[in-house]
Amino acid sequence: MGKVPVSKVAELRKAAQLTQLELAQAVGVTESTIANWEKGRNALVWFERVAKLCKTLDCSPEDLIGYVDALETGEQ
User: Fold this and answer.
1) Residue 13 belongs to some domain of the structure
2) What is the mean pLDDT of residues 2-14?
3) CATH code, domain carrying 43
4) Distance of CA 67 to the CA centre of its chain
5) How far out from the chain centre does Cα 15 lie?
6) Residues 18-27: what's their mean pLDDT?
7) Is residue 3 part of a domain?
8) How far apart are CA 57 and CA 46, in angstroms?
9) Which of 7, 41, 51, 56 has the greatest number of beta carbons closer than 10 A?
10) 12: nearest Cα among 33, 38, 31
């Protein structure tokens, strides 16, 4: 039987001694989003895909995103 992904967000949050609210504020999401991530809802498949991308491309998640001035993309 194969392995399935499980969320480690709660474990890492607790190790960092943060509440769900504190983590949510630091990340810029709602507290309920953090709760959903901890329960493995919504984003777990996306996290797994990011992990596979990083493994395949031999990079970190930070390497997947570059930042440019908002004016270059038309975003504010």
Assistant:
1) yes
2) 86
3) 1.10.260
4) 17
5) 16
6) 96
7) no
8) 16
9) 7
10) 38
Assign 21 to helix, strand or coil: helix
2 in a structural domain: no
Range of the domain at 66: 9-73
Question: How does DSSP classify residue 8?
Answer: -
Position 45, amino acid: V
Q: CA 26 → CA 9, 19, 45, distances in Å?
A: 14, 11, 22
Q: Could you tell me which of 5, 2, 1 has the C-alpha nearest to residue 46? A: 5
pTM as predicted:
0.67
60, pLDDT greater than 70: yes
| Per-residue confidence (pLDDT) for residue 72, from 0 to 100 | 60
Residue closest to 31 by CA, chosen among 5, 9, 62: 9
Residues 30-35, mean pLDDT to the nearest whole number: 93
The answer to the question of residue 60 being in a domain is yes
Number of domains in the chain: 1
